[in-house]
Amino acid sequence: MTTNAFHAPAPHADVSATARARLRTVVLASLAIVAATALPPRLARAETADEFVARLNQEFAFITRELSAAGWTQATYITVDTQLLTARANERFLESFSRAVTEAKRFAGQPMSPASQRALELLKLGVSAPAPDDPAKRAELATLLAGMEAKYGEARYCREGSQDCRDEVQLKAVLEKSRDYDELLDAWQGWHDQARGLRTDYTRYVALANEGARELGYRDLGAMWRSGYDMPADAFTKEAARLYSQVEPLYRNLQCYARQKLAQKYGEDKVPAGKPIPAHLFGNMWAQQWDAIYDLLEPYPGVSQLDIDSALQEQGYDPVRMTRSAEDFYKSIAFMPLPQTFWERSMLAQPRDRNVQCHASAWHMDGKDDVRIKMCTRPTYEELRTVYHELGHVYYYLWYQDQPYLFQNGAHDGFHEAIGDTVNLSMTPAYLARIGLVPAEAKPGREALINRQMKMALQKIAFLPFGKMIDEWRWQVFSGQVAPQDYNAAWWAIREKYQGIRPPVPRTEADFDPGAKYHIPGNTPYTRYFLSYILQFQLQKALCDAAGFKGPLAECSIYGNETAGKKFGAMLAKGASQPWQDTLFELTGTRQMDASAILDYFKPLEDWLEQQNKGQTCGW
Fold first, then answer.
1. Is residue 390 flagged as an active site residue?
2. Residue 280 designated active-site
3. What is the pLDDT of residues 339-351, one digit of tens each?
C-alpha cells in the first residue's frame, strides 16, 4: 500500500498507497497556496489558464518538501507532538486545496491546451478527503485524519490482567504461524477489538469529507473517488463489477477447496460445508491473502518445496540485503540505481525505541529523487515480495520525476500498485534459483506446477474479492446507503457476499471491525489494489511478449531483459499526463482492462480445482 499509497498490499502487506495519497495531498495543497498567494489579484486575473497551470507546477516544490517531511516524521516517530504538527500541516493542505479549486474555476470555458485542461481536472480530484470551506470544520477534519492514523499505529492488545501487550506486527505473526484454533481467535479478536475507539471519529470524518466532496460538485465522497478513472463515476462502478465477474468463478472454486482443507484441520463443526468460513483461519488478520496457510492447502505435500522463508534466514538476509536484491532486479531491466539518499533516509527495520507505522509504504518527498520506503521488514518470502512491490512505487516516482508536478502520479491509482506486483510475477522458481533462494531443478512436472500455482493463487486470487469489497462498503457508507448504526453489520454482510467468510465470534455495533484494516482509518482508497491485481497480469503478458518469451505465462521472468525493461520504463515515464487508456494501449495494444491474462495464468490450477471440488457442497 505510497505517497502510496503510500500501498498497500500492497496487498502483500497491503502496501503502500497512503503515503502516496498523502504526497498527492501535499502537492495539490501546495499548488493551491501558490494559486491563492503568489501574485497580486490584478496580475492573477490577467493570467491565461496555461500560465496558471505552469506557475503552479513550477512553484510548489518548496512547500511540498516541508509538508512531506511532516508526514514522514509522524509515520516514523509517533508522538503527540508529531501528530499535532501533521494535523496542522494537513489543515493548511486542505485550506489551500479549496482555494486552488476556487481559483481554477475562473478559467472555465477559456481556451487552454489539452495538458492544462487535464491538469485542472486532476487538481479537482487531487485529495482523498476534501475539507469543507468552513475553517472550523477544516481544522476538525485535519485533526481527525491525523488522530485516526495515530490511534491505529499506537494500538496494542494486552490480555486482561497481563503485561503481555502486542502490536499489529506481533499479532499478525500469530495468525501466520499458529495452527491452534483458540490461539488464532485470541489474536484476531484482540486486534479487532482495538478498533472500537475509531468508530466515532470515522463517523464524523464521513460527514465532513462528504460535505467537502459536495462542495466540489460530487454527490458524495465515493462518487468523487470513482470519478478519477477517466470515465463517469457510474460507468466505473460497472467496469469494476465487470472485471470481478471475470474472476469470481475461479475465486469460488478456490474458496470451496480451502473450506474442505480447513474442515479437515479444525473439524466440520467449526468449518461446516455450505457455510461461510471463520475469518481467523486464513493465516492473515483480514483473510485477504491465504498463502501463510499453504501448509494446510498444499495440493501435493513435499513436491517442489517452496520454503523460501528458511532460505532467507539461513543465508542471513536482513532488511538491507532484501532491498538490495529488489534493486538488483530493477537494474537488470535497465532501470537506474537507487539514489544514495534512499539508503540513508529510508526506514527498513522497526526501531526499538519508538512507535512507528509499520505498514509498508513508499514516499516521494520532493518530486525529484528523494525517494524512500518505510517498512518493518522481516526475513520472510512475503516481505521480500513486499520490498519488490514497494520499489515498484519508488521506480515509478523516479521515472516520472521530469513530468510537471500535476502529472506526477500513476496513469490511474491501480497502475501505481500494479508495477511492483508485475515484477513479483517475474519472481519465478527459475529466478529464485538464479539468486540462490531455491535449488535449481529440471522442468517441473504437473504436481510441482499445481503446487506453485496454488501458492500464487492464495496470494493473488484470494485477494480479489477483498480488494473489491473494501471500497464497496465505503461507497455505501459515503452515499448514506449504510447508516452509522449499521456500519459493522454491513461490513460483515459484504464480506460474506464476496469472500464467503464470517466473524469467528459474534460482533455487534459496539465493534468497528472495518477500523482494524489500516486503509479505513488511513483514508486510503482501496479499489486501486483490486485493479492492480488485474492489471499486473495484463502488463506481465505484454512485457513477456516484448521480451520474446515463448511458453506458459506462469514461467516467464523478465529479469535481465533490457528490451522489456525499456518499454516498461517508457510507460512509467508518462505518469498521469494522458488518460490511462492511452498509456495502457502503448504497452499492451488495448485500451481496456481485462482479466483474460490472469485466467490464462491460472488455467492449470482452475482445471485441477474443478476436479477436486466434484461432489463437494460449494458456496455459502
1. yes
2. no
3. 999 999 999 999 9
